Amino acid sequence: MTERIQNFLASRRHDGPCLVVDLDVVRENYNAFAKALPDTRVFYAVKANPEPKVLKLLADLGSCFDTASVVEIKLALEAGATADRISFGNTIKKERDIATARALGVDLYAVDCKEEVEKIARVAPGARVFARILCDGSGAEWPLSRKFGCVPEMAIDVLEHAHRLGLVAHGVSFHVGSQQRDPAMWDGALASAAMIFHTLADRGIQLAMVNLGGGFPTRYLKEIPGVESYGSAIFNALRKHFGNQLPETIIEPGRGMVGNAGIIRSEVVLISKKSDAEDDARWVYLDIGKFGGLAETMDEAIRYPIKTARDGSAMVPCVLAGPTCDSADVLYEKDPYFLPVSLEIGDLVLIEATGAYTTTYSAVAFNGFPPLETIVI
């Protein structure tokens, strides 16, 4: 927790869960990415945290933006980005949304099939497209597989089809999985990208760009390599597979940009047991759960650091759950959290490293609970 967040929370009345984001941390993270990969453009993944003040800061720093919808495109433009700094990175787009994006000036689009190419060719003639390929997400705590991308061999046909329809076959993209703790995972994906570049070059189509995707982690309970380790591993893999003919590269950090910049303050609503058995686990219910912004606790994939004012006293295993009337709203049960035995109803709980993928997962009014409040300092 930063001193700025600590001071803010100490002075603010508690009235429901809230996320507090420290812009100084976001600035530090952006500068770290820019230093680790100096020849690579940063396209911040807006879906990680679309808070306007976060976007404004990043736009002022020179960041570009990876967007998933027309709403996100407009948010990036309102933050000060120009259209040439925006990518429509979702491979699943309505044709009318592509037309709107093009009218707003966006010229860079992700595809993973011929059908998507044809939509873009109809309403955004001459636009640049990059094909997303499937790749191994081993080592990622939140894998992104199957739904997006195609096998590398199909990507060749997709980009050739785009070229024939008058679009600019611009490049290749991939995603090695969110919260990827192994910097070596970019190597195999870059080998596939180089194969696509070389194959299409032989057919007279010159690609220019490799989108290295996101995947850059934030620290939860496990140690992670520093961003400089990712920069070094990626650069070495680029030289290995592309030699001296290095392509233009971009990255799409989301979690790695804002994850450690935010902390959620929550309250203990109830502490109980399901039986009188001595070894029965305590259930600790918070005023925030899966539907309030902690959706990434699904399958207990992301395990957030949790702090209380009573830390340091004896700890006991607890099942952690949210407040809603839905049995799926259990955060951690298979692998219970150890929390202070002295923890009481009404105590405040800090859930750290929650700056990414929390507010955007928060339901609007499930069970009547309001969406997660964001405060930027």
Automatic annotation (TrEMBL):
Gene3D superfamilies documented for this protein: Alanine racemase, Lyase, Ornithine Decarboxylase, Chain A, domain 1
Keywords, ordered alphabetically: Lyase, Pyridoxal phosphate
Keyword Cytoplasm part of the UniProt annotation: no
Record has Lyase as a keyword: yes
Cofactor(s) required, per the database record: pyridoxal 5'-phosphate
Coiled coil, from the record: none
Domain Orn/DAP/Arg decarboxylase 2 N-terminal positions: 25-258
Known catalytic reactions: L-ornithine + H(+) = putrescine + CO2
Known EC number: 4.1.1.17
Pathway of action: Amine and polyamine biosynthesis; putrescine biosynthesis via L-ornithine pathway; putrescine from L-ornithine: step 1/1
Family per similarity comment: Belongs to the Orn/Lys/Arg decarboxylase class-II family.
Annotated protein name in UniProt: ornithine decarboxylase
